[in-house]
Every structure is written in structure tokens, then in C-alpha cells.
């Protein structure tokens, strides 16, 4: 994405979110360390902007590395776009499943963190989840 135009982290997060039709939104904890790593490898260089944000542009070395792996990048971008299309096609049905999974995950994390569950309860929950899938 940075090869198309210089971008800062937030722009990249939004571009990936848009490419996946909202299905995947990378966190700043994924984007910014990746940008730093690519800068350290001399694949990206920072640009100074007046708004205090650090933008990046691809370097000659980065362009070379991108060309070496272009097929892989194309597959990843196509899968991301395809996942977004599938998400839209199945929209409301999938949303209900995702919501239920998120509620269950939150409930289990809360109970496990408070240690409210006995080993037998954990075993029963585990068995029920394995049966459901």
C-alpha cells in the first residue's frame, strides 16, 4: 500500500479496513511495529510532515523486495478483497455468529480471569464447545 502512495499508520489501517470491507482492521500494535521493522530494513523511509504524523514511502530496496514477492502480495490482497466480498454477501447471518462468539469469548475470559470455574466446569464447557464445532 505504501508503494502506491506515501502513507502514515492510520491511513494504512483505514486502507486495509476498506480493502477487506471492514472484515479486518489491523490494530496500531500490528501496524506501527511493522512500519518500524520495514524502516530498519531500509524498505521504507520516514517523511516529515507538518501535522506531526510520521508518513512512510517505499525505498528502492523496498521496491526490489516487493517485486521479488509480488505474487504473494497479489494473493494476499485478492484474499483480503474476497473475504470482504464474502462478508458482505453473508452479512447479517455472519454478524450474528460473530456477535455470539464475541459475547462467549468475553464471558469465558471474565470467568476464567476471576477463577470462578471449577476444573469440572471448564471440562464441560470445553466439551460443549468442541461438540458445537
What is the structural class? mainly alpha
Portion of residues in beta strands equals: 5-15%
Order of strands side by side in the largest beta sheet? 1-3-2
Order of secondary-structure elements? EHHEEHHH
Q: Enumerate the spans where pLDDT stays under 50 for 5 or more consecutive residues.
A: none
Helix fraction, binned, reads 55-70%
- Report the span from N to C terminus: 36 Å
CATH architecture of the domain at 1-68: Orthogonal Bundle
> The CATH topology of the domain at 1-68 is what?
Arc Repressor Mutant, subunit A
Estimate the mean pLDDT confidence.
Answer: 80
Give the C-alpha Rg.
20 Å
Number of strands: 3
Largest sheet geometry:
3 strands, antiparallel
CATH class call of the domain at 1-68:
Mainly Alpha
User: Helix count?
Assistant: 5
Using the alpha-carbon principal axes, give the shape. elongated
What would you say this structure looks like, in words?
- Residues 2-68 form the Transcription regulator PadR N-terminal domain.
- This is PadR family transcriptional regulator.
- InterPro entries: Tscrpt_reg_PadR_N, WH-like_DNA-bd_sf, WH_DNA-bd_sf.
- Pfam families: PadR (PF03551).
- It is a single chain.
- This protein is mainly alpha-helical.
- The chain has a domain at 1-68: Winged helix-like DNA-binding domain superfamily/Winged helix DNA-binding domain (Arc Repressor Mutant, subunit A, Orthogonal Bundle).
- It is built from five helices and three strands, in the order E-H-H-E-E-H-H-H.
- It has a three-stranded antiparallel β-sheet with strand order 1-3-2.
- Strand 2 and strand 3 (54-58) form a beta hairpin.
- The longest helix is centred in the C-terminal third of the chain and has 45 residues, at 70-114.
- The protein is elongated.
- It starts with 6 loop residues before the first strand and ends with a helix.
- The model has no long low-confidence stretch (mean pLDDT 80).
